[in-house]
Amino acid sequence: MIKVGILFGAAAVLSISAPAAAQTVPTGATGALADRLLAAHNRERALVGAPPLQWDAALAAHASTYGPFLASIRHLVHSPREGRPGERENLAMAFHGTRSPEQLVAMWSDEKRLLQPGLFPAVSRTGQWEDVAHYTQMVWPTTTRVGCAIFAADWDYLICRYSPPGNLDGKPIFTAASLPAR
Protein backbone atom coordinates (compact mmCIF):
# COMPACT_ATOMS: atom_id res chain seq x y z
CA MET A 1 0.00 0.00 0.00
CA ILE A 2 1.24 3.49 -0.80
CA LYS A 3 -0.10 6.89 0.03
CA VAL A 4 0.60 10.44 -1.07
CA GLY A 5 -0.31 13.44 1.09
CA ILE A 6 -2.94 15.60 -0.51
CA LEU A 7 -4.20 18.37 1.70
CA PHE A 8 -2.52 17.88 4.93
CA GLY A 9 4.66 17.26 6.17
CA ALA A 10 13.73 11.26 11.52
CA ALA A 11 15.83 9.34 10.16
CA ALA A 12 17.71 10.11 6.99
CA VAL A 13 17.85 6.54 5.69
CA LEU A 14 15.33 3.90 4.77
CA SER A 15 16.66 1.46 7.33
CA ILE A 16 17.69 2.71 10.72
CA SER A 17 20.32 1.14 12.93
CA ALA A 18 19.37 3.24 15.98
CA PRO A 19 15.98 4.40 17.25
CA ALA A 20 14.88 7.81 15.98
CA ALA A 21 14.74 9.08 19.57
CA ALA A 22 18.52 8.57 19.80
CA GLN A 23 19.06 11.38 17.31
CA THR A 24 19.48 14.60 19.21
CA VAL A 25 19.99 16.85 16.20
CA PRO A 26 17.71 16.20 13.23
CA THR A 27 19.64 16.25 9.99
CA GLY A 28 17.36 14.92 7.30
CA ALA A 29 18.80 13.10 4.33
CA THR A 30 22.53 13.43 3.76
CA GLY A 31 25.15 11.90 1.48
CA ALA A 32 24.03 9.42 -1.13
CA LEU A 33 20.39 9.52 -0.03
CA ALA A 34 20.27 13.31 -0.42
CA ASP A 35 21.92 12.99 -3.83
CA ARG A 36 19.33 10.44 -4.95
CA LEU A 37 16.36 12.50 -3.78
CA LEU A 38 17.75 15.64 -5.40
CA ALA A 39 18.45 13.81 -8.67
CA ALA A 40 14.89 12.45 -8.76
CA HIS A 41 13.52 15.98 -8.41
CA ASN A 42 15.90 17.46 -10.96
CA ARG A 43 15.12 14.79 -13.57
CA GLU A 44 11.49 15.95 -13.52
CA ARG A 45 12.50 19.60 -13.61
CA ALA A 46 14.76 19.04 -16.62
CA LEU A 47 11.85 17.51 -18.55
CA VAL A 48 9.96 20.83 -18.35
CA GLY A 49 12.94 23.16 -18.65
CA ALA A 50 12.89 24.26 -14.99
CA PRO A 51 16.27 25.10 -13.46
CA PRO A 52 17.72 22.43 -11.16
CA LEU A 53 17.08 22.60 -7.44
CA GLN A 54 19.89 22.84 -4.91
CA TRP A 55 19.96 20.66 -1.79
CA ASP A 56 19.28 22.61 1.41
CA ALA A 57 20.42 20.91 4.63
CA ALA A 58 18.29 23.24 6.76
CA LEU A 59 15.14 22.28 4.83
CA ALA A 60 16.11 18.61 5.22
CA ALA A 61 16.51 19.10 8.97
CA HIS A 62 13.11 20.81 9.14
CA ALA A 63 11.57 17.91 7.22
CA SER A 64 13.13 15.34 9.56
CA THR A 65 11.43 16.81 12.61
CA TYR A 66 8.00 15.92 11.22
CA GLY A 67 8.59 12.20 10.63
CA PRO A 68 7.98 11.05 14.21
CA PHE A 69 4.60 12.81 14.26
CA LEU A 70 3.52 11.14 11.00
CA ALA A 71 4.61 7.75 12.36
CA SER A 72 2.59 8.35 15.52
CA ILE A 73 -0.63 9.03 13.59
CA ARG A 74 0.13 6.52 10.78
CA HIS A 75 -1.29 8.64 7.97
CA LEU A 76 -0.39 11.81 6.07
CA VAL A 77 -1.37 15.22 7.33
CA HIS A 78 0.59 18.29 6.31
CA SER A 79 2.34 20.20 9.06
CA PRO A 80 0.78 23.58 9.86
CA ARG A 81 2.04 26.27 7.47
CA GLU A 82 2.65 28.71 10.32
CA GLY A 83 5.30 26.28 11.61
CA ARG A 84 7.18 26.32 8.30
CA PRO A 85 7.15 29.88 6.98
CA GLY A 86 8.57 30.23 3.48
CA GLU A 87 8.39 26.49 2.91
CA ARG A 88 6.04 24.13 1.08
CA GLU A 89 5.83 20.44 1.80
CA ASN A 90 5.29 17.18 -0.07
CA LEU A 91 4.50 13.95 1.77
CA ALA A 92 4.43 10.30 0.72
CA MET A 93 4.31 6.99 2.54
CA ALA A 94 4.63 3.31 1.72
CA PHE A 95 4.95 0.10 3.72
CA HIS A 96 8.48 0.01 5.14
CA GLY A 97 11.05 -1.18 2.63
CA THR A 98 8.66 -1.55 -0.32
CA ARG A 99 9.71 1.58 -2.25
CA SER A 100 13.07 3.14 -3.05
CA PRO A 101 13.55 6.88 -2.49
CA GLU A 102 13.15 7.39 -6.24
CA GLN A 103 9.90 5.40 -6.25
CA LEU A 104 8.54 7.53 -3.42
CA VAL A 105 9.34 10.71 -5.39
CA ALA A 106 7.82 9.11 -8.51
CA MET A 107 4.48 8.96 -6.68
CA TRP A 108 4.45 12.75 -7.01
CA SER A 109 5.84 12.74 -10.56
CA ASP A 110 3.01 10.47 -11.69
CA GLU A 111 0.56 13.31 -11.08
CA LYS A 112 1.78 15.01 -14.27
CA ARG A 113 -0.62 12.85 -16.29
CA LEU A 114 -3.46 14.96 -14.82
CA LEU A 115 -1.81 18.33 -15.43
CA GLN A 116 -3.10 20.93 -17.84
CA PRO A 117 -1.55 24.31 -18.61
CA GLY A 118 -3.06 27.25 -16.84
CA LEU A 119 -2.88 29.48 -13.82
CA PHE A 120 -2.60 27.73 -10.47
CA PRO A 121 -4.85 26.31 -9.03
CA ALA A 122 -6.75 25.66 -12.30
CA VAL A 123 -4.12 23.23 -13.57
CA SER A 124 -5.72 19.79 -13.17
CA ARG A 125 -7.72 17.85 -15.72
CA THR A 126 -9.89 16.64 -12.82
CA GLY A 127 -10.71 20.15 -11.63
CA GLN A 128 -9.06 19.35 -8.27
CA TRP A 129 -5.71 21.13 -7.85
CA GLU A 130 -4.81 18.65 -5.09
CA ASP A 131 -4.47 15.97 -7.76
CA VAL A 132 -1.37 17.65 -9.21
CA ALA A 133 -0.03 19.81 -6.35
CA HIS A 134 2.87 17.54 -5.39
CA TYR A 135 4.11 17.47 -8.95
CA THR A 136 3.65 21.19 -9.52
CA GLN A 137 5.60 21.97 -6.35
CA MET A 138 8.44 19.71 -7.50
CA VAL A 139 8.76 21.54 -10.81
CA TRP A 140 7.63 25.04 -9.79
CA PRO A 141 9.93 27.33 -11.81
CA THR A 142 10.79 29.80 -9.02
CA THR A 143 11.50 27.19 -6.34
CA THR A 144 15.28 26.88 -5.97
CA ARG A 145 15.92 24.63 -2.94
CA VAL A 146 14.72 21.31 -1.55
CA GLY A 147 15.53 19.26 1.53
CA CYS A 148 14.00 15.91 2.44
CA ALA A 149 13.96 13.23 5.10
CA ILE A 150 12.76 9.66 5.18
CA PHE A 151 11.48 8.46 8.52
CA ALA A 152 11.41 4.68 8.73
CA ALA A 153 8.92 2.89 10.98
CA ASP A 154 6.21 0.38 10.03
CA TRP A 155 5.81 2.75 7.10
CA ASP A 156 8.44 4.84 5.33
CA TYR A 157 7.50 8.51 5.38
CA LEU A 158 9.09 10.82 2.82
CA ILE A 159 8.89 14.48 3.79
CA CYS A 160 10.29 17.12 1.41
CA ARG A 161 10.36 20.85 2.04
CA TYR A 162 10.72 23.45 -0.74
CA SER A 163 11.72 27.10 -0.83
CA PRO A 164 10.77 29.59 -2.10
CA PRO A 165 7.27 28.11 -2.05
CA GLY A 166 5.51 27.17 -5.24
CA ASN A 167 1.86 26.54 -6.04
CA LEU A 168 1.07 30.25 -5.95
CA ASP A 169 -2.49 31.19 -6.85
CA GLY A 170 -2.82 33.05 -10.14
CA LYS A 171 0.67 32.11 -11.37
CA PRO A 172 1.32 29.89 -14.40
CA ILE A 173 3.07 26.58 -13.90
CA PHE A 174 3.62 25.79 -17.59
CA THR A 175 2.91 27.09 -21.02
CA ALA A 176 1.27 24.68 -23.45
CA ALA A 177 4.67 24.24 -25.15
CA SER A 178 6.41 23.19 -21.93
CA LEU A 179 3.65 20.87 -20.67
CA PRO A 180 5.22 17.48 -19.91
CA ALA A 181 4.24 14.43 -21.94
CA ARG A 182 1.59 12.23 -20.36
What layout of secondary structure does this protein have?
Elements: E1 2-4, H1 31-47, E2 54-55, H2 57-64, H3 67-73, E3 88-95, H4 101-109, E4 118-119, H5 133-139, E5 145-152, E6 155-163, E7 172-174
Helix pairs in contact: 1-4
What would your notes on this structure say?
This protein is α+β, with helices and mostly antiparallel strands and 182 residues long. It has five helices and seven strands; from the N terminus they run E-H-E-H-H-E-H-E-H-E-E-E. The chain has helices at 31-47, 57-64, 67-73, 101-109, 133-139, and strands at 2-4, 54-55, 88-95, 118-119, 145-152, 155-163, 172-174. The strands form two sheets. The protein has a five-stranded mixed β-sheet with strand order 1-3-6-5-2, sandwiched between helices. Strand 5 and strand 6 (155-163) form a beta hairpin. Helix 1 runs parallel beside helix 4. The model is unreliable at 1-24 (pLDDT under 50).
Q: What does the main sheet amount to?
A: 5 strands, mixed
Uncertain stretches of 5 or more adjacent residues: 1-24
Mean pLDDT: 86
Radius of gyration: 15 Å
* Class by SSE composition: alpha+beta
Strand order of the largest sheet: 1-3-6-5-2
Q: How many H/I helical runs?
A: 5
Short summary:
The protein is 26% helix and 19% strand. It contains 5 helices and 7 strands, in the order βαβααβαβαβββ.
